[in-house]
Design brief:
single chain, six-stranded mixed beta sheet, alpha/beta, Rossmann fold, four-stranded antiparallel beta sheet, 8 helices, 12 strands, 34% helix, 2 domains
């Protein structure tokens, strides 16, 4: 375990998902999904748009309630936002979701300040520490509009790290980024796992990035987890759904 200047030691937590189903009206988004993620593991979920990736993340986060099944994190049922949890969780949203009226530093420290986790001096040190982890310590006083898309994604990662999370969720972290910026984000994800052993769940349509950061991967198709394995096992899969997705990615036709 590693300890930062935030809320104490980080520790990877296990995730256990059993029989998870979710529908919106007549549309079944997730169907009887079962999955286990090990403590400290980076698990990547791949699949095209509309296959249920983001809906799954929102249920792990507690923003959506399953219609059936259950999710256990560190052995405890997922709690709704605002309720006490025996684990700490961070989220990196696809858009970054930064407040344009706040500086980079204010965005990263917002949760800590609102919840009065520490005094202003300590929060300032935490903000600097987390921005340094993503290579942006010198951008603290800039506004999001003054940053590139890749930098804004890294600020979003720093904000997720501010609470020293045991689990971090990434929703399409490289969407709309060029190949160079995609590499920077992928390197940041790998480096954070190496430093802190945080459990990470990454959803992406980008097969190459997913294979680079993953310990294991799962392919979602029409709400079902059709294959799970190491990146090499996924690349060599004989499953026709997985093969079709890989072929599309190889042709450079994968959609966001």
């Amino acid at each position: 375990m590693q300890e930062g200047q935030g809320r104490g030691p980080t520790r990877g937590v296990a995730i256990r998902i059993v029989g998870l189903s979710k529908a919106f009206g007549d549309v079944e988004v997730l169907r009887d999904l079962t999955l286990e993620v090990q403590p400290g593991e980076t698990f990547v979920i791949i699949g095209p748009s509309g296959c249920g990736k983001t809906v799954l993340l929102k249920q792990i986060l507690g923003l959506l309630t399953p219609d059936a099944g259950r999710i256990l994190i560190d052995g405890a049922p997922v709690a709704a936002p605002g309720q006490p949890k025996p684990y700490r969780i961070g989220m990196v949203f696809q858009s970054g979701a930064l407040f344009s009226s706040l500086t980079v530093g204010e965005n990263v420290g917002l949760w800590l300040k609102e919840h009065r986790v520490a005094d202003d001096g300590v929060i300032e040190r935490i903000v600097t520490e987390k921005l340094a982890l993503v290579g942006l310590a010198d951008k603290k006083h800039l506004f999001p509009s003054e940053l590139s898309g890749g930098m804004r994604k890294r600020v979003a990662i720093a904000r997720a790290l501010a609470t020293d999370p045991d689990l971090i969720l990434y929703d399409e972290p490289t969407a709309e980024l060029d190949p160079v910026m995609t590499d920077h984000i992928a390197e940041a994800i790998v480096d954070l796992k190496r430093r802190f052993r945080i459990t990470s769940v990454v959803v992406t349509h980008d097969l190459n990035m997913g294979c680079y950061v993953a310990d294991r991967m799962g392919m979602l198709h029409e709400g079902r987890l059709v294959e799970v394995g190491t990146p090499e096992q996924i690349r060599r899969s004989a499953n026709p759904v997985v093969r079709a997705f890989i072929t599309t990615q190889t042709k450079g036709m994968g959609g966001a």
